[in-house]
């Protein structure tokens, strides 16, 4: 895919503390990339640099081959919704949504039709004549989204644009947003701290941690082959036990010794090679583990500390190997206090080995 929006080594420092550190990212034409990470990791700062509200200390923003780093926001022609969206309170809904269309010099009929379509999308049809200040916070957020979409901009920048909507409406709106973005062909960067939202919406997810990009890829790749411990635990659940590397990694798989006669294979990160004898933390997804008779081979013995009902299955917390694992099971047979044996279901799938640094403890 041709890169339409390119971030080249963007850095932004506030009072000596970097909020974004040498961030490079390419967004393909018509692609939706979500910036995902916890609060304070630099998502909004990155988006503001793309928009032109924040000047990077170093690095460049390139759109369609053109350096726009020094260009003022209004000249960039991007559609945007920021967390503190600014609607014009004295104007009607229609006037707010039509704002970008009028400056684009479209005819009256075309403007009316686009406003109507944008309002349909955000599920507020027929509200053209309402005053913005009469609407709820969630409704105002949807008007802000409609205003950003109506001109069908080439680049769409959205910062948690659905945060004020209730769960059901949020899910529905993001599905419709995705199909509209794809239909019109907008290149989109969508900021969220919500993993589920990122999974639902994105072609690729960029995971940010403390201003650094940990990994970029399709949701499935990040879930199945996380590059860092942070990605493994931020996207999905994972328990952890301590181990030692038994042999040299082969084809990205490493044997980890967890006990005298217990070795489990695990996926090793390509970026940080593990050497024989290295101390590792073995992370395991709940669905990658199962209970087994404790006299079977390679069984890690432990004790159930918690049982959680998760709808179509149960999740057990098991303290084992100096750490805490989670085991997904269809059965409700085990209960807190029970001694259990844990085995991998289809190793190395769902098992990840990461180097354990000297300062870290043995367990999770
Ligand atoms: N204008 C600013 N002045 C000083 N510090 C800021 C400013 N904007 C953001 N920061 C800091 O930069 C870091 C990243 O913030 P932000 O990009 O808003 O994170 P996120 O959107 O991921 O929650 C935070 O530590 C925040 O306090
Ligand atoms: Mg933010």
Give a description of the structure.
This protein has 364 residues and is of the alpha+beta class. It has two domains: 3-229, P-loop containing nucleotide triphosphate hydrolases (Rossmann fold, 3-Layer(aba) Sandwich), CATH 3.40.50; 237-355, Nucleic acid-binding proteins (OB fold (Dihydrolipoamide Acetyltransferase, E2P), Beta Barrel). The protein is built from ten helices and 20 strands. The chain has helices at residues 43-51, 73-76, 93-97, 99-103, 108-121, 137-149, 167-184, 195-201, 219-224, 229-234; strands at 3-14, 17-28, 32-36, 58-63, 66-67, 79-81, 155-159, 187-192, 204-209, 212-217, 239-245, 253-259, 262-267, 279-284, 289-292, 300-309, 314-320, 323-329, 339-344, 351-355. The protein has a six-stranded mixed beta sheet with strand order 6-7-8-3-9-10, sandwiched between helices. A five-stranded antiparallel beta sheet has the order 13-12-11-14-20. A hairpin with a 2-residue loop joins β1 and β2 (17-28). α5 (108-121) crosses α6 (137-149). It starts with a strand and ends in a 9-residue tail after the last strand. The structure holds adenosine-5'-diphosphate and magnesium ion. Residues 43-44, 83 line the site of magnesium ion.
């Amino acid at each position: 895919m041709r890169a339409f929006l390119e971030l080249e080594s963007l850095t932004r420092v506030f009072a000596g503390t970097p909020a974004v550190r040498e961030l490079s990212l390419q967004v393909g034409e018509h692609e939706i990339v979500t910036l995902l990470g916890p609060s304070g990791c630099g998502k909004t700062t990155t988006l503001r640099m793309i928009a032109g509200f924040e000047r990077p200390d170093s690095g460049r923003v390139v759109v369609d081959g053109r350096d726009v780093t020094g260009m003022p926001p209004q000249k960039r022609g991007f559609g945007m919704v920021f967390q503190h969206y600014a609607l014009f309170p004295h104007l009607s809904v229609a006037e707010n949504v039509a704002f970008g269309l009028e400056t684009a010099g479209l005819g009256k009929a075309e403007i009316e039709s686009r406003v109507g379509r944008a309002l349909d999308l955000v599920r507020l049809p027929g509200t053209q004549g309402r005053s913005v200040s009469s609407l709820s916070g969630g409704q105002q957020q949807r008007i802000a989204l409609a205003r950003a979409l109506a001109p069908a901009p080439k680049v769409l920048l959205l910062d948690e644009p659905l945060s004020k909507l209730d769960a059901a409406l949020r899910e529905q709106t993001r599905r419709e947003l995705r199909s509209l973005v794809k239909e019109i062909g907008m290149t989109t960067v969508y900021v969220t701290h919500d993993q589920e939202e990122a999974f639902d919406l994105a072609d690729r997810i960029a995971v940010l941690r403390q201003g650094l990009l940990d990994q970029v890829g399709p949701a499935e790749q990040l879930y199945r082959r996380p590059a860092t411990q942070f990605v493994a635990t931020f996207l999905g659940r994972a328990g952890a036990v301590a181990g030692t590397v038994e042999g040299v990694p082969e084809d990205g798989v490493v044997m980890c010794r967890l006990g005298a006669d217990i070795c489990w294979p695990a996926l090793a990160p390509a970026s940080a090679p593990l050497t024989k004898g290295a101390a590792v933390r073995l992370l395991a997804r709940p669905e990658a583990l199962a209970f087994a008779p404790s006299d079977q081979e390679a069984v890690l013995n432990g004790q159930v500390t918690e049982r959680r009902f998760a709808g179509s299955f149960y999740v057990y917390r098991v303290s084992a190997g100096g750490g805490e694992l989670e085991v997904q099971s269809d059965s409700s047979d085990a209960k807190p206090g029970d001694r259990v044996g844990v085995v991998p279901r289809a190793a190395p799938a769902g098992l990840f080995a990461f180097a354990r640094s000297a300062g870290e403890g043995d367990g999770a």
